[in-house]
Amino acid sequence: MFLTINPDNPQPRLIKQVVECLERGGVIIYPTDTTYGIGCDIFNRKAIKQIFQIKQRDQRKPFSFICNDLAEISHYAQVSNFAFKIMKRHLPGAYTFVLDATKIVPDSLSTKQKTVGVRMPENEICRAIVKELGRPLLRPVPILRGRIPLRIPGISRIGWDIWLILLLMVGFPWVKHHL
């Protein structure tokens, strides 16, 4: 299913559809401030497993995740005063901060050193999804710069429903020609 969501003012009705998919264990492809990524609810083990299979990624290599704001980041990562000052200056933005994980972070998303990467992208659609969901999403994995492929390796083989969220704007004319 393709959803066209306004990049400047995401429609709440469409954001709720995306969140309903995530709450059912769905996997989505969604925009951030740098690229499109594949993701799911960080607390849904089935969805996380699906992403590891889709990406054919070693389960010992955890993903980072996206938070809506600094307060949410502090629930999942131990943020020192120094880190807070740096994050406040640079977020939202295209940065991933690696911090000590809190106990609430699923083991599959933290490293052996109990650290986790957190992001707060400067993208209204992405942040609206996370805000409505009420918890982080897996960090997007780059697919293609400036493009959304119509086929993703592993999807047809595995056969899960993938919801595509398309950000149609001047910088992505390729999308309009392939729908």
Element-by-element helix/strand order: EHEEHEHEHEEHEHEH
Structural class: alpha/beta
Domains counted in the coordinates: how many?
A: 1
How many H/I helical runs? Answer: 7
| Number of strand segments | 9
The CATH topology: DHBP synthase
For the largest beta-sheet, the strand count, sense and barrel status come to: 5 strands, mixed
Query: What does the oligomeric state look like here?
Result: single chain
| Beginning-to-end CA distance, first to last residue | 11 Å
Question: Based on CA inertia axes, which overall geometry fits?
Answer: globular
Proportion in β-strands = 15-25%
Unreliable spans are: 143-179
- Secondary structure: helix percent: 25-40%
Query: Taking Cα atoms only, what radius of gyration do you get, to the nearest Å?
Result: 16 Å
Strand order of the largest sheet: 5-6-7-4-8
Supply the CATH architecture: Alpha-Beta Complex
- What integer is the average pLDDT? 77
SSE blueprint:
Layout: E1 2-4, H1 12-23, E2 27-31, E3 36-39, H2 45-55, E4 65-66, H3 70-76, E5 77-78, H4 81-90, E6 93-101, E7 115-120, H5 124-133, E8 137-138, H6 155-158, E9 162-166, H7 173-177
Parallel strand pairs: 1-9, 2-9, 4-7
Antiparallel strand pairs: 2-3, 4-8, 5-6, 6-7
Task: Describe the protein's architecture and organization.
By secondary structure, this protein is of the alpha/beta class. It has a single domain, classed as Alpha-Beta Complex (DHBP synthase). The protein is 33% helix and 21% strand. A 5-stranded mixed β-sheet has the order 5-6-7-4-8. A 4-stranded mixed β-sheet has the order 1-9-2-3. Strand 2 and strand 3 form a beta hairpin. Helix 1 packs across helix 5. It is globular. The termini are close together. The C terminus is likely disordered.
